[in-house]
Amino acid sequence: MNAKNADKIATGVLYAIAGIVILILAALLGYILIQGVPHLSWHFLTAPASAFTAGGGIGIQLFNSLYLLLITMLLSFPIALGAGIYLNEYANPKSKITGMVRMTIEILSSLPSVVVGLFGFLLFVVQFNLGFSILSGAIALTFFNLPLLTRSIEDALATVPDLQREAGSALGLSRWETVGHIILPAALPSIVTGVVLSAGRVFGEAAALIYTAGQSAPALNFGDWNPFNISSPLNIMRPAETLAVHIWKINSEGIMPDAQEVSAGASAVLIIVVLIFNFSARYLSSYLYKRLTSTK
Amino acid sequence: MTEQDMAALNLDAEQPTSNIYKMGDDQEIALSTNDLKVYYGDHLALQDADLQFERFKITSLIGASGSGKSTFLRSLNRMNDGVANVEGNIMYRGLDINTKDIDVYEMRKHIGMVFQRPNPFAKSIYENITFALKQHGIRDKKVLDERVETSLKQAALWDEVKGDLDKSALALSGGQAQRLVIARAIAMQPDILLLDEPASALDPISSAKVEDTLLELKDKYTIIIVTHNMQQAARISDYTAFFHLGKVVEYDETRKIFTRPKVQLTIDYVNGNFG
Question: pTM (2 decimals)?
């Protein structure tokens, strides 16, 4: 066989493999959407779930998922940003401390999320007496999210060429000024992409939340925005079943007559939200790039 | 006998230094180095560089790759901090700037640098120039506008970009980007401009424009430039230092280096016998 034919065969095989990947994804998405989308309605998206009768919605779970995501990002982004900046801009790559930090992050990222959830249950829910709450769930998700977010921020910073750092210091700017005003803005589009993509993962996470944010969704009073009231949507100490946990729960112990339909509809919503995150990441990133590089 | 006389005697006694040009009393020295040595780890990359740079002149540093000329240049504004160990003195306005207690950020306002590859920030053309100025405390819009216009004019870029100051600097061509970077450096109003092969990544036309820009800038700035291009060194510089294997082999007025150098190695290099 000559080189030309070998190349043709290799190309064909690689195309086929890529095709299979796309096919699997399309089949999965197609199935979930076809099953779920017919059940979607404004009522389904906003009404509270019902435990025994048909016609319940996912309103509270959807809100809980989004709110929990927000709190998780508020907790994990600053830490991940600091860690990412440290690792890429300040740490001496040869030092032992840097090696240890990197190893810690890698181990953290390889922990199964159910283990993170159980750890969170023992430490935050029981030991720190935070109970099944949004806060417990957000901390568990931070553990789960931190390694990936740190890595994506570090990678985003690493793609900014060293020429930019040299340019900054040649103009008499300190490292902090250079990082804060030149490197971070240049890396911002890819940082945002990383944040939004990790948001999609956090949004769909169930295992880490079952024992931390809990499996119940008490009724919320959407007229009450005082975060200290127990029925306020903003209260972070209330138990909060999320969409992903809800899907798991209906499928394992749901006794409402329309459990199948609710599960299919909720799965479709979950997938659609994650897809929105993924597509908006691309759009946001290119929008930010344009905004940042020109004054108008 | 004064100390200076003793030093002069010593100088005469040392044979090799006679190939190194010394400024006369009537010449104003902008920057000079004494026994500058640069180590990368244990490796001595540059030894005993004693060079004086005259004010408002262009000095070229030439030599083959690995000769130590870029290492030397980058040591002058402490860009080698954290990369290499630099020993010896770098005298600027009577001050040794190669010491721990020098504020390198302040010093680099006076000794600017332009690199081989154009490195504009991912900002607008206007902000590329004003950003560092703002960080150094200049807030007055009028002053900033004026600095932008003057520096772009000095860098011979104003006519090409005056309508596009708000556009991204990343959209400029390589040659324009390099002139923007030069404008950015001179907007700081430094005394000395260090350039590390500023034209080597550019096409001949852009390269010629950068050369013209440097000749224009000579009136106001002391320029030290590393170049691989011997014609460029001959065309634009007043002095030339020839580096070889981590040593300054010869330093003299450019026309002497290129017409009747004292050292055989220099003759070989400028004639293109090695490199």
Answer: 0.82
Nearest by CB to B122, from A166, A292, A295: name it: A292
Contact A245, A34 (CB under 8 A): no
Task: Flag if A295 and B127 touch (Cβ within 8 Å).
Answer: yes
Neighbours of A23 (CB within 10 A): 10
The CATH number assigned to the domain holding A200 equals 1.10.3720.10
**Residue A15, in any domain of the structure:** no
Q: Is residue A5 part of a domain?
A: no
CATH of B3-270, one of 3.90.550.10, 3.40.50.300, 3.90.25.10, 3.30.565.10: 3.40.50.300
Q: Which residue, chain included where needed, has tokens 């740190």?
A: A150
Q: What is the ipTM of this complex?
A: 0.81
Tokens at residue A102, please? Answer: 């990197």
Element (H, E) at A27: helix A3-36
Q: Is residue A3 in a domain?
A: no
| A21 falls within a domain | no
Render pLDDT for A111-143 as a digit per residue (tens, 0 to 9).
Answer: 898 999 999 999 989 999 888 999 999 999 999
Q: Does A286 touch chain B (CB under 8 A)?
A: no
b/e per residue A230-269 (b: at least 16 CB within 10 A): eebbebbebbbbbbbbbbbbbeeebebebbebbbbbbbbb
Distance CA B173, CA B179 (A): 10
Q: Return all residues near B53 (Cβ < 8 A) that are at least 6 apart.
A: B29, B30, B31, B32, B59, B192, B222, B224, B239
